Amino acid sequence: MTSTQAPGTTPTRTPWRVAWASMIGTSLEQFDFYLYAYFSAFFVGPLFFEPLGAAGATLASFSTIAVSFVIRPVGALIFGHMGDRLGRRATLIWTVTLMGVATGLIGVLPTYAQAGWLGAMGLVLLRLVQGISLGGEWGGAVLLATEHAHPVRRAFYAAIPQLGSPIGSILSATVFLVLTATLPMEAMASWGWRVPFFLAIPLLLVSLYLRRRVEETPVFTRMSREGAREKLPMLAMLRRRPGALLVAVAAAQLGIGSYALMNTYTMNYGAVVLGYDSVQLMTAATIGALLQLVTVPAFGALAARTSSALVVGIGALGTALIAFPMYFLLQSAGFGVLVAMMVIGGILPTMSWAALGGLMSDLFPDRFRYSALSLSYAVAATVAGFVPLLTAALGTATGQAWWHPGVVLVLLSAVTGVASVLAAVLVRRHEQEPVTDGAPLTATA
């Protein structure tokens, strides 16, 4: 067996340590992503799109979020192919490097007042780079964790990279809370907003160190040794499991879309329309994210004992039931109720989020699983990326009716709930089929 370990490093093979390294890298990716989400909610419009007016600048700000989602399938095609052909570990080093560098460069962009539309153009370009990186990150992180683990425990280890989302949210919100507490708003608008983006560089170095210490997964090593890698894994996936791809995309809608709705749209909606203090909103979101540090692995353990599809489905049903009451109470809530709403609104979608990696992994065979997970997640993220924009448009059309965000959350829940049922059916069907996925369709060295 040919080693893929970096020279001068000690190999890491323990499943828990591999999952930890995978989660740290995903945390950086999510830190960068949520950092921009908070940034777009409060600063992107005024700093980069000032001539468009308040409403136009807000829509342009949310559009820069959508841009990074739209480009994700391109990243999935590139890095999915690399992950199934060249290896999970090497591909993840590329994805985390692209994200860290692009995020750091956002911190040096000129604002509209400094260079006109040049800064906005650079912002869109760097958001495209971030989106390409994210297109290959999530699927690889899940596989890095699960393919080092025993099959019985894979649903649990598939949930560990999902911790990157609350950790990234906590880190990014904490940075902004500290800055807003220590700097006047004039300083934040002038130069303070740049500081969090510069923090991506040291975090990138830590992530690279950890990922270089991880060995290639036993699953990919075995496929390489047996010549079982697909020459065109994405094409093989589309030919063999197109229905599973559609189910995986639908299953991811609540897990991804609820984050976009809660951490981006609701932050802006709460501050601009409902009049909440932005610091209170970030504090409530951070408290909710802290709770997920416990609930994500707990739901992952539940998925390992039952099934990933079942846990995803329960989360979707529960979210649909609390969507309208949550946004109704949000209209006139004090800080305590605000925190409760963010916590409750986070726990149930977290069930679907925590078990998502296990559900998707169950749907696809080893030899094109990186491509399958990357593309399905990227397409789902592309759709979910428009959630803040579409919710804002619905709010405008309904005169900011209290129920308009609840409609979006219920729709996301319904799509994911139906997909969880279909996923359970497909997994059972695949388990009853003759084992043919172990043999390559196109054997390559």
Can you summarize this structure?
The chain is mainly alpha-helical and 445 residues long.
Task: Walk me through this protein's architecture.
With 445 residues, the chain is an all-alpha fold. The chain has a single domain (15-432), classed as Growth Hormone, Chain: A (Up-down Bundle). It is built from 22 helices and no strands. α6 crosses α20, α14 runs antiparallel to α19 and α14 (242-251) runs antiparallel to α22 (404-432). The radius of gyration is 21 Å and the shape is globular. The two termini are 13 Å apart.
Name the helicity range. Answer: over 70%
Strand content: under 5%
Structural class: mainly alpha
What is the assembly state of the chains in this entry? single chain
> What CATH architecture do you see?
Up-down Bundle
- Quick one: biggest sheet? none
Q: How many helix segments?
A: 22
CATH class placement: Mainly Alpha
What is the total tally of β strands?
A: 0
Shape: globular
CATH superfamily: MFS general substrate transporter like domains
Distance between the termini: 13 Å
The mean pLDDT is 83
Low-confidence stretches: 1-12, 435-445
Order of helices and strands: HHHHHHHHHHHHHHHHHHHHHH
Q: Return the CATH topology.
A: Growth Hormone, Chain: A
- Radius of gyration (CA) equals 21 Å
Number of domains: 1
